[in-house]
């Protein structure tokens, strides 16, 4: 099984019972006979911990112990339960910096960070937007029982030009809204939200003429100036510049070559 849980959506005092389950009488209102947690439900499969940065600090040692020992005890219980679960976690924060600042356990960070997949924000993957739009249209079509949902070229261009601060969730919500507002199965620019249609990129284009720096030179100067200010800290530099780390690494490599 694949079991997903959003750590930010669970009240702090319920995190451990949601993850590890509880026995009967563990707390007021506990279900008769107890209840298995997400780890037990995901036995033999995968547990996806979304927004792991929201995991309460006081619950992190127990999560670390469960991951390292492959066994758990339910809240209010005394029976050791063996588990075999693959853990996938996601975050939109710099967890290493959070760990250094004491906002996330460093030992848990290193335990979770076995394989790191850095997914750039949607604003850095504009070429992916048409593919994502097509996929989301199909997904929403099945959900709303609407077949063959399409999007016209003008509406798609507006979506591709937008910066998507909310990433894929924002894109999905916009498309679902557009589908609901559309009179037929074709999304037109008329049902796209005004803030997206009015969006203008902050890019600056300067001709490479004598005495005037090119855009590439300006970008290079800005990147190395920020790197100097943050003493080479890539994570801090990427936050200041508003780009993800993988993009920043590529640009540094390009400018140094």
TrEMBL record:
GO terms for biological process: regulation of DNA-templated transcription. Residues 1-180 form the Sigma-54 factor interaction domain. SUPFAM superfamilies: Homeodomain-like, P-loop containing nucleoside triphosphate hydrolases. Keywords: ATP-binding, DNA-binding, Nucleotide-binding, Transcription, Transcription regulation. GO terms for molecular function: ATP binding; sequence-specific DNA binding. InterPro entries: AAA_lid_NorR (IPR058031), Homeodomain-like_sf (IPR009057), HTH_Fis (IPR002197), P-loop_NTPase (IPR027417), Sigma_54_int (IPR002078), Sigma_54_int_dom_ATP-bd_2 (IPR025943), Sigma_54_int_dom_CS (IPR025944). PANTHER family: C4-DICARBOXYLATE TRANSPORT TRANSCRIPTIONAL REGULATORY PROTEIN DCTD, TRANSCRIPTIONAL REGULATORY PROTEIN. This is Sigma-54 factor interaction domain-containing protein. The lineage of its organism: unclassified sequences, metagenomes, ecological metagenomes.
């Amino acid at each position: 099984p694949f079991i997903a849980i959003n750590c930010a959506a669970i009240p702090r005092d319920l995190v451990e019972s949601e993850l590890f389950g509880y026995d009967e009488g563990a707390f007021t209102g506990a279900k008769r006979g107890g209840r298995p947690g997400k780890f037990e439900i995901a036995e033999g499969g995968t547990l996806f911990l979304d927004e792991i940065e929201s995991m309460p600090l006081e619950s992190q040692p127990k999560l670390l112990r469960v991951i390292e020992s492959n066994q758990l005890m339910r809240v209010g219980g005394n029976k050791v339960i063996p588990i075999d679960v693959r853990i996938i976690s996601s975050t939109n924060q710099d967890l290493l910096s959070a760990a250094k600042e004491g906002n996330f356990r460093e030992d848990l960070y290193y335990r979770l960070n076995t394989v790191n997949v850095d997914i750039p924000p949607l604003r850095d993957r504009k070429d992916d937007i048409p593919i994502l739009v097509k996929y989301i249209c199909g997904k929403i079509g099945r959900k709303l029982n609407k077949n063959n949902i399409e999007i016209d070229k003008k509406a798609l261009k507006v979506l591709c030009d937008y910066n998507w601060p909310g990433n894929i969730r924002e894109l999905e919500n916009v498309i679902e809204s557009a589908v609901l507002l559309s009179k037929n199965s074709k999304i037109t620019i008329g049902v796209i939200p005004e803030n997206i249609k009015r969006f203008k990129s902050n890019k600056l284009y300067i001709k490479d003429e004598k005495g005037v720096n090119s855009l590439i030179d300006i970008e290079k100067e800005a990147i190395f100036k920020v790197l100097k200010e943050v003493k080479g800290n890539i994570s801090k530099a990427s936050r200041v510049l508003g780009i993800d780390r993988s993009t920043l690494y590529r640009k540094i490599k390009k400018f140094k070559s």
